[in-house]
Design goal:
About 40% of the residues lie in helices and about 25% in strands. It is α/β, with parallel strands linked by helices. The strands form two sheets. The chain has a six-stranded parallel sheet, with helices on both faces. A two-stranded antiparallel ribbon has the order 4-5.
């Protein structure tokens, strides 16, 4: 990964990471994930971003609470409901702007940023952070069908880590 003296921050797109891990057939143990990255540098902050749908808040709340008490800075955004021209219900709520703003604010305090998402919208963020001299790693997967990472994001990043390779280190183990 990186040198032990490297200062780093993690930026986790919760929805994107969850979908990728499910496609690969495992659940993430967020304690293991933190431990893995703390082994490779000084972890200044680990952000976890997620949207909350009112009807689902009871299922997401335990994870959000656990993360908040165990070393993560949790950023949530309520989804907004709207209807299109045909009367179909639309749920809107993206956290990409929140993640990008936080990454830019922290960029002058870290040597490395790790983004857990394959969303191509983050390519410009990666480019902007790199111009500030920050190394950027992106964690997603090409091992799913279809791949969860946008090609332009993968090319822009300094390094790509396939989530599949992290599986043995961060997968939740089932109690026997």
């Amino acid at each position: 990964m990186s040198s032990r003296t490297s200062k780093m921050a993690l930026f986790i797109d919760g929805y994107n990471l969850n979908v990728a891990s499910k496609l690969l057939g495992f659940d993430i143990d967020f304690r293991y994930l933190l431990n893995e990255f703390e082994r490779h540098g000084e972890l200044l902050r680990a952000f976890y971003y997620t949207t909350i749908i009112e009807e689902q808040s009871s299922t997401v709340r335990p994870l959000i609470d656990w993360l908040g008490y165990n070393g993560y800075t949790v950023v949530t955004k309520a989804t907004k409901e709207s209807f299109d021209g045909n009367g179909r219900r639309r749920i809107n709520g993206k956290i990409s702007i929140d993640l990008a703003v936080d990454a830019m604010e922290l960029a002058n305090k870290v040597d490395e940023i790790v983004i857990f998402s394959g969303d191509g919208d983050y390519r410009r963020l990666v480019e902007a952070v790199q111009r500030r001299g920050v190394r950027v790693r992106v964690v997603s997967t090409i091992s799913s069908q279809p791949p969860m990472i946008a090609d332009e994001l993968r090319r822009q990043a300094d390094a790509f880590i396939d989530l599949r390779a992290l599986r043995p280190l961060i997968a939740r183990t089932q109690a026997k």
